[in-house]
From TrEMBL:
Residues making up the signal peptide according to the UniProt record: none
Keywords annotated in UniProt: ATP-binding, Kinase, Magnesium, Metal-binding, Nucleotide-binding, Thiamine biosynthesis, Transferase
GO cellular component, one term: cytoplasm
Primary role: Condenses 4-methyl-5-(beta-hydroxyethyl)thiazole monophosphate (THZ-P) and 2-methyl-4-amino-5-hydroxymethyl pyrimidine pyrophosphate (HMP-PP) to form thiamine monophosphate (TMP).
Protein's organism: Parachaetomium inaequale
Protein name: Hydroxyethylthiazole kinase
Cofactor dependency: Mg(2+)
Family matches, as HAMAP family: Thz_kinase (MF_00228), TMP_synthase (MF_00097)
Pathway: Cofactor biosynthesis; thiamine diphosphate biosynthesis; thiamine phosphate from 4-amino-2-methyl-5-diphosphomethylpyrimidine and 4-methyl-5-(2-phosphoethyl)-thiazole: step 1/1; Cofactor biosynthesis; thiamine diphosphate biosynthesis; 4-methyl-5-(2-phosphoethyl)-thiazole from 5-(2-hydroxyethyl)-4-methylthiazole: step 1/1
Pfam families (UniProt xref): HK, Isochorismatase, TMP-TENI
Database matches in InterPro entries: Aldolase_TIM, Hyethyz_kinase, Isochorismatase-like_dom, Isochorismatase-like_sf, Ribokinase-like, ThiamineP_synth_sf, ThiamineP_synth_TenI, TMP_synthase
Residues in Thiamine phosphate synthase/TenI domain copies: 10-204
Keyword Protein transport: no
Upper taxonomic lineage: Eukaryota, Fungi, Dikarya, Ascomycota, Pezizomycotina
Superkingdom of the source species: Eukaryota
Length: 693
């Protein structure tokens, strides 16, 4: 019989010991697991004589054949031959691969246990059909294991066998269960080779309901983990970074943060546009994670209850696919903390790990140094720091931030050094923790490009500190804190985009080309601005004579409430009035991104755009949202403004640019707006744009 094509997704390794099988019947448990979806079975019996083993294997083979699933025998080539089953699994101390192949022939399956690159290359070259790579995690099921290699060890092996051109199939084994399976597969993945499946003993053999357990596990193998993100290409990433500048959506950032820094962490979260919830009770996480946002696990102080709560929250956020930031405060200070770090890392996926040098070394796992409290003494030089964050991020497949005089950030492929910040940050308790809060707010809204989000958050945080420290009223750490909160807030406000609605008044209705289309686009713009929390500035030109803003926009402006930062009457043509430029929303030297809609394109819109550009802001003009009395003016005005540095775009393009990511909580409602206004968009584009571009 030719060698069958094997699906290694869920590989069951049996165990008949009392501690695992109990008093149940082996065949019954294996059959239930086959019903649940197990794809390979290995009979692994360490006691009993050969005759007993052969008859057990025969019975089991009858069952596995009914499910068209291969049966392999652990260690015993003679038993596999006697039974005529599909093959064997041999370890490094069992019969040699070449001898087993000679005895079994080319068509039988032979799997080999490997725990090092050398063993793996030898097994592949020797013609193994698959590798059982492990032991991944320590497990009571097999205590005589030689090496615990972790996900990083598995990935190292996969990398090297792929480089050597072997396409041998692979599973990993040791300590795998429902709660860690997807993370292990994700973290084991090498650039050119993934695992084909997982081998499991106790999570199926000892399960109360082996069928349900197998069904769940095979689903987890086949489905991508919820926390997987598409990191995107470098070009898109660079554009994103340029546009980002600390532009966060309002996000929810539940934090498990201890008393000492709760207050400042909550204030920082509010200042950067997030809504913080300090949740110390793990049970709440299942509901909180459904609201969007990100989780911060801050190990400020630990106790057994606290650790259990961290793990519950971590599980809930991982399951929901929401990002998690881990701040391993004082990680190396005590053995309890070192253990807590291990437990947290073994129980969930952490999108970002942020710590000082000592903490990151401890997380990496090779630090012999004793940390004192949360101190941040340094022994590494910059290239070593960069290497450490890069290696840790590559190992964990996440983003790692090492804070210090220079901060290092890496996603395992790209590594950055950031030289901003101010010494006062180190003189106020809890500021380090609040950087974690700021990062969480950023990745909650830009999960698809975590590295960009993290860098934007660090820059936002540290530049705010620099500006705050320069303020005349700041004389030390005490006066620095309120100034820092103000600057965090002002940067967020200033870098957030805003809308300008220019002079859309009653008297212009009959005179302006396609006036109704300008209104349609402006309505859509106001709805988008309200949903995305974008500030709005409105003007009228000589209201007494030309009338108020048209009634079609009034209810939308009312609904926008406090987002309408100003509704001013003017005689000047430009909207960049002193009352606008001096508004708290604009801070000197900080660039805002402003979009303009209204009339007339060659007069008020042109003069507003030129003033804004001269003041250093970025300006976008909606081609489907501006008009003039004479249609010919529109094209001339837009060409001039484009040349002056403004971006001419469309309302839909601008709305999607503001969202940036389909993962943001507002995306669904915004798609609703886009769909509902589809007809208006078409009408406005046809009516207004055809004549200008
Ligand atoms: C799929 C799979 N991988 C690894 C092992 C371990 O085999 P071995 O090293 O021979 O240890 P024992 O199973 O004999 O204790 C396995 N059995 N299956
Ligand atoms: C057979 C074997 N080889 C390495 S670990 C292991 C046992 C895995 O058992 P479990 O899936 O219960 O952790």
């Amino acid at each position: 019989m030719a060698k069958p094509q094997v699906d290694y997704a869920l590989y069951l390794v049996t165990d008949s010991t009392l501690g695992i099988l109990g008093d149940r019947d082996l065949n019954g448990v294996v059959e239930a697991s086959l019903k649940g979806g197990v794809t390979v079975v290995q009979l692994r019996e360490k006691t009993g004589d050969t005759g007993q083993l052969v008859s057990k294997a025969r019975e089991l083979h009858q069952i596995t054949r009914r499910y068209n699933v291969p049966l392999l025998i652990n260690d015993r080539v003679d038993v596999a031959l006697a039974v005529g089953c599909e093959g064997v699994h041999i370890g490094q101390d069992d019969m040699e691969l070449a001898a087993a192949r000679r005895l079994l022939g080319p068509d039988k399956i032979i799997g080999v246990t490997v725990s090092t690159v050398e063993e793996a290359l030898r097994a592949c070259e020797g013609g193994a059909d698959y590798l059982g790579i492990g032991t991944v995690y320590a497990t009571p099921t097999k205590t005589n294991t030689k090496e615990i290699i972790g996900a990083a060890g598995v990935r190292g092996i996969l990398e090297r066998i792929a480089e050597a051109g072997h396409n041998t199939q692979t599973v990993c084994i040791g300590g795998i269960n429902e709660s860690n399976l997807q993370r292990i597969m994700f973290q084991c993945h090498a650039a050119k080779k993934s695992l084909d499946g997982v081998a499991i003993v106790s999570a199926i053999m000892a399960a109360q309901d082996p069928e349900a357990a197998a069904r769940k596990l095979v689903g987890l193998v086949r489905d991508p983990p919820p926390f997987v993100v598409d990191i995107g290409d470098n070009q898109a990433w660079e554009k994103q970074l340029a546009a980002d500048d600390g532009d966060y959506m309002v996000t929810l950032a539940p934090s498990v943060i201890k008393m000492v820094v709760q207050n400042i962490a909550a204030n920082v979260a509010l200042a950067v546009g997030a809504s913080p919830i300090m949740a110390g009770y793990g049970e709440e996480a299942a509901d909180l994670c459904k609201l969007g946002g990100a989780l911060v696990i801050n190990m400020g102080s630990i106790d057994p209850n606290g650790l259990a709560n961290y793990l519950k929250a971590l599980k809930a956020y991982n399951l929901e696919g929401r990002p998690v930031v881990f701040d391993p405060v004082g990680a190396g200070a005590t053995s309890l903390r070192r253990e807590a770090v291990k437990t947290i890392m073994a129980n969930g996926y952490l999108d970002v790990i942020k710590g000082n040098e000592g903490e990151i070394k401890t997380v990496f796992g090779n630090s012999q140094e004793q940390q004192r409290g949360v101190d941040s003494s340094s022994t590494l030089v910059n290239p070593q720091k960069a290497k450490l964050v890069r290696e840790l991020a590559a190992r964990e497949r996440n983003v790692v931030v090492m804070t210090g005089r220079t901060d290092f950030v890496s996603d395992g492929a790209r590594t950055f050094a950031i030289d901003n910040g101010h010494e006062y940050l180190g003189k106020v308790t809890g500021t380090g923790c609040t950087l974690g809060t700021t990062i969480s707010a950023a990745i909650a809204s830009r999960k698809a490009d975590r590295l960009t989000a993290v860098i934007a958050a660090i820059l936002h945080f540290e530049i705010a500190a620099e500006i705050a420290a320069e303020r005349p009223e700041v004389r030390g750490p005490g006066t620095f804190v309120p100034a820092f909160l103000d600057e965090l807030y002002l940067i967020r406000q200033a870098t957030a985009r805003d809308d300008r609605v220019c002079d859309i008044q009653e008297k212009f209705r009959p005179a302006i080309f396609e006036f109704d289309k300008v209104i349609l686009t402006t309505q859509k713009l106001l709805r988008a601005a309200t949903a995305l929390q974008i500030p709005i500035f409105v003007t009228t030109q000589n209201r007494a004579r030309l009338g108020d803003t048209v009634s079609e926009l009034k209810s939308l402006l009312d609904a926008a409430g406090p987002l309408v930062k100003a509704d001013l009457d003017k005689t000047r043509f430009s909207m960049w009035l002193p009352a606008v430029s001096s508004h708290a929303h604009f801070t000197p030297h900080r660039k805002s991104e402003i979009v303009l809609a209204g009339i007339e394109s060659h007069i008020c819109i042109t003069q507003t755009a030129l003033d804004l550009l001269a003041a250093g802001h970025s300006v976008s003009i909606l081609a489907d949202g501006v008009s003039s009395s004479n249609r010919e003016e529109i094209g001339i005005a837009l060409a001039r403004l484009r040349q002056a540095g403004a971006v001419v775009t469309s309302s839909e393009s601008w709305i999607y640019e503001c969202m940036g990511d389909a993962g943001i909580p507002e995306f669904k409602s915004m798609v609703g707006v886009v769909k509902e206004t589809m007809g208006d968009t078409k009408a406005a584009l046809q009516g207004l744009v055809g004549s200008k571009i």
